[in-house]
Design goal:
The protein has 481 residues and is of the alpha+beta class. 19% of the residues lie in helices and 31% in strands. The protein has eight helices and 30 strands. The strands form six sheets. Strands 4-5-11-6-10-9 form a six-stranded mixed barrel. Strands 17-16-23-24 form a four-stranded antiparallel beta sheet, covered by helices on one side. A four-stranded antiparallel beta sheet has the order 20-21-26-25, with no helix packed on it. Strand 16 and strand 17 form a beta hairpin. The longest helix is centred in the N-terminal third of the chain and has 27 residues. It is globular. It starts with a helix and ends in a 6-residue tail after the last strand.
């Protein structure tokens, strides 16, 4: 009898310890985690002369593909503003940008387009230019032009001489009169009509107007106005004849010293479509992990042998919605934190926008709530900090040199997925890490369209194939060399 009681107690104790240990392991070491080194985020507030490295025009050609060096704009055109203040300002602007973008998405879906006068072409970007983060250098008419990259814009444009009203830029303005290959696009030409069809402009050409004029308004009141022209575009040794671009004569906004903007949107007007003969409608980028001068790359063309990805590229189909053809939309089917899947009724419902112009990823409230709860469960025991702007899950990590953080994985239709890089999980509101926040935010309503921002695309090779209508993801330590 005594032996039976002892055996029973032993079994009960073993069962209890098994349950206890399984819970301990499930809440700690068995979760997928990555080490984040906090010391490299102790930014210097000193101003360095870095613009020359941004204008170096580095490129590589590989048969049918060309790779351009990509820099973070804060490194290229940084002011003496304290880094902490700049980080905070960017969040505020990012929130306003998303509100404008959501409004534009809803209007596009419901076909509630604004009625504009004959002299104006409809809005082609909802972006606030101050938060577009990455720049590359292209050669237009024989002159190097460093431009902001944006997948949410269509028209590529630069500031031109003579300029009626131009913001200050680092390089000389483009002068069409010095380019032997420059041609003005006539207002009544078939090319001008095609451009007007793409943008929604349908008014006739005034009798006294000989050029194909354009106006692009941005969400913060910034704009570019001028005429469309054609010129020779070069990427390294690759040439594109008769490239259509905007020659801006009246430009206003926060363009940060860049010469203009490169539109990578999914329309007939974008640089991707215009270079289809050279690059077959394929481009990719790898965004650098820091703002301290680490280069990334923009590759035009689909030669995957030149990528440096460490995981296999997994592809998912683009989602095509009426009125949203310019945007790159995907079907987000799930997410996990530390290997633990989270539930969200909106997964696979409204699509998600992949955008290089938005900084912080926005999720439907039900998905964000589940993500936040699971993250806090696994990342526990750290001092909390006050929320800032759109970020409501913050910590004081100033007393730590490094921390282990749960892996966040995003999953898409067709079994495509990627892990958010360790440098894209936390946003450092303050340079000393005393206010470090989970770099995800909630939308207001579940029926709004989720957005994957550039902060979560760091150290990731993102491949866009507009011919096959797919987007691919693979992990990659971003660099140019």
């Amino acid at each position: 009898m005594t032996k039976q009681i002892t055996l029973c107690l032993t079994l009960i104790f073993s069962l209890f310890m098994g349950i206890f240990l399984s819970r301990v392991l499930a809440s700690s070491s068995y979760h997928e985690k990555n080490l984040l080194n906090l010391q490299k985020f102790q930014w210097s507030n000193q101003h360095h002369n870095t613009t020359s490295s941004c204008f170096s025009h580095k490129s590589r050609n590989h048969e049918d593909s060309t790779t351009l060096e990509m820099k973070h704009r804060d490194f290229c055109f940084r002011k003496t503003t304290e880094m902490s203040q700049r980080q905070q300002d960017r969040l505020i602007l990012d929130n306003e940008q998303v509100q404008i973008l959501q409004s534009r998405l809803k209007n596009s879906i419901s076909s509630e387009f604004q009625t504009l006068s004959n002299a104006q072409i409809p809005l082609t970007s909802g972006a606030r230019l101050q938060i577009l983060n990455y720049v590359v250098t292209m050669t237009l008419g024989g002159k190097n032009m460093t431009v902001i990259v944006d997948t949410g814009s269509d028209l590529t444009w630069v500031q031109c001489q003579p300029c009626r009203s131009c913001y200050t830029q680092q390089q000389p303005l483009f002068n069409p009169s010095t380019s032997l290959s420059y041609r003005v696009m006539p207002c009544k030409s078939s090319d001008c009509r095609s451009f007007q069809d793409v943008t929604g402009y349908s008014g006739p050409c005034p009798s006294n107007q000989s050029t194909c004029n354009y106006i692009v308004n941005y969400g913060d009141g910034s704009y570019t106005r001028g005429e469309l022209g054609k010129d020779l575009l070069n990427f390294g040794q690759m040439s594109v004849n008769n490239f259509v671009f905007g020659c801006g004569r009246n430009n206003k906004g926060l363009f940060g010293g860049a010469s203009g903007l490169m539109g990578l949107g999914n329309s007939a007007l974008s640089i991707i479509t215009q270079t289809d003969d050279q690059f077959s409608g394929v481009f990719s980028y790898c965004l650098p992990s820091s703002e301290q001068g680490d280069p990334g790359s923009l590759t035009l063309g689909g030669n995957s042998s030149i990528y440096k990805n460490t995981t296999e590229i997994s592809y998912t189909k683009m989602v095509h919605s009426p009125g949203l053809s310019t945007f790159y939309m995907l079907n987000l089917t799930g997410m996990s934190v530390g290997g633990v899947g989270i539930n969200g009724p909106s997964f696979g419902q409204n699509g998600v926008l992949l955008d290089s112009g938005t900084v912080i990823t926005r999720l439907p409230p039900s998905v964000y709530t589940a993500l936040k709860a699971e993250f806090l469960k696994q990342f526990s025991g750290f001092p909390t900090a006050q929320r800032f702007s759109i970020l409501d899950t913050c910590f004081d990590l100033s007393g730590f040199k490094e921390v282990n953080i749960p892996t966040i994985r995003m999953q898409f239709e067709g079994n495509a997925e990627f892990n958010v890089d360790v440098n894209g999980v936390f946003y450092f509101v303050k340079a000393d890490a005393s206010q470090t926040c989970l770099a995800f935010a909630s939308l207001t309503y579940d029926d709004e369209i989720a957005i994957i921002g550039n902060y979560q695309q760091k150290n990731l090779r993102v491949v866009y194939d507009t011919k096959k209508s797919v987007v691919g993801f693979a992990e990659e330590e971003c660099s140019f060399e």
